[in-house]
Amino acid sequence: MSKDIEKVLLTEEQIEQRCKELAAQIEHDYEQENTVPIIVGLLRGSVPFMAELIKRFTFPCEIDFMSVSSYDGTESIGDVRIEKDMDLSSKDRAILVVEDIVDTGRTLSEVRKMFLNKGATNVKIVSLLDKPERRVVDIEADYVGFTVPNEFVVGYGLDYNQKYRNLPFIGVLKPEIYE
Ligand SMILES: O=P(O)(O)OC[C@H]1O[C@H](OP(=O)(O)OP(=O)(O)O)[C@H](O)[C@@H]1O
Ligand code: HPA
Prior knowledge:
The protein is an alpha/beta fold. It has a single domain, classed as Rossmann fold (3-Layer(aba) Sandwich). The chain has three helices and nine strands, in the order βαβαβββαββββ. The longest helix has 22 residues, at 12-33. The radius of gyration is 16 Å and the shape is globular. The mean pLDDT is 93. Bound molecules: 1-O-pyrophosphono-5-O-phosphono-alpha-D-ribofuranose (PRP) and hypoxanthine. Keywords: Glycosyltransferase, Transferase. This is Hypoxanthine phosphoribosyltransferase. Its EC number is 2.4.2.8.
């Protein structure tokens, strides 16, 4: 696994430190709003980030997951499909979507629209990573861990063909892995 990595962009320590800061900021904002949000992790990439965040929340919240898919290998296929919907109802609820990366922005744009169509009162997004150079849809996360350059990254939930999600850091693969 680690032998396939060309360079590490973000270490486990950097990610944990940033998660503490994000969790404090999110907690502060929901306390001000006095709502009980549903924290919705987008499977599968958000799992490590979601775990790192929610264990630090001390405000009342519920959690759920959904799975949407728009990637084949390193290519965004444009068409966002819901593969597994969440179990809780989002009607009249505040939603915090937890995402690993905003790349083209297609996934989050569709997911946000979907929640608003289903009657959510408020939809916010927290993403561990933001890759603004790749954006084709005008959307920004409300909370971002780190901005990354225009390179395909893996680790901490992010995959290449379903591998490398379990790496505890974020890195870039050696070019020969894609060949
Ligand atoms: O901004 P976009 O260009 O839409 O890309 C971001 C999305 O792409 C990846 O999902 P993927 O479909 O690979 O599912 P995964 O979470 O299971 O890896 C990633 O987890 C984001 O959900
Ligand atoms: O850089 C990335 N890495 C892994 N999955 C992704 N999905 C969108 N961008 C990426």
